[in-house]
TrEMBL record:
Domain of life: Bacteria
Gene3D superfamilies: 3.40.50.2300
SMART domains referenced in this protein's UniProt entry, alphabetically: LMWPc
InterPro entries: Ptyr_pPase, Ptyr_pPase_sf
A single BP term in Gene Ontology: response to arsenic-containing substance
Domain Phosphotyrosine protein phosphatase I: 14-146
Protein name per its UniProtKB record: Protein tyrosine phosphatase
PANTHER family per record: ARSENATE REDUCTASE
Keywords: Arsenical resistance
Length: 152
């Protein structure tokens, strides 16, 4: 069911889509922390512009922080998902790579960050994944705090 452009339903939680070039690391972390820290405030999903497998290092660093990774799987952005979203948060250093079509139905924000897979010095290097995890967790927590302040 489509809604008028720019009009979020006041009878439901806002919809947040975390999006990136692939849906293998950063966006999955954002979805996981979103579900953990924002579940009472918004509905959260993630997707990528291209198909990819969930990076096992992503799952590993989330689990070491006590985050449930069940239900995390890679998804590709489609028009229905963009129509679903009220806020699209892209997680990449260069948003031009995403070729995201701006729409009146959602607000777009970018969290500029490098792909931990490109920064890793090998398949066992978790350092860039831990850094990305901590940065994303901090940003999601700040987002959560901002929403909670608006609800006071």
């Amino acid at each position: 069911m489509s809604r008028p452009a720019g009009k979020a339903s006041l009878r439901r939680k806002p919809h947040v889509l975390f999006m990136g070039p692939t849906n293998s690391a950063r966006t999955q972390m954002a979805e996981a922390y979103g579900r953990d820290l924002l579940a009472d405030l918004v509905e959260v999903r993630s997707a990528g512009m291209a198909a990819s497998d969930l990076d096992p290092r992503t799952r590993q660093v989330l689990q070491t922080d006590g985050i449930d990774t069940n239900g995390l799987y890679t998804k590709i952005v489609d028009p229905n998902l963009l129509d679903w979203a009220d806020l699209v948060v892209t997680l990449c250093a260069d948003t031009h790579r995403l070729k995201l079509q701006e729409q009146e139905s959602f607000v777009h924000k970018n969290w500029s960050m490098e792909d931990p897979a490109r920064l890793a010095k090998g398949p066992d290097d978790l350092a860039p994944y831990l850094q990305a995890r901590d940065d994303i967790k901090r940003r999601v927590r700040q987002f959560s705090n901002s929403i909670r302040l608006m609800h006071r």
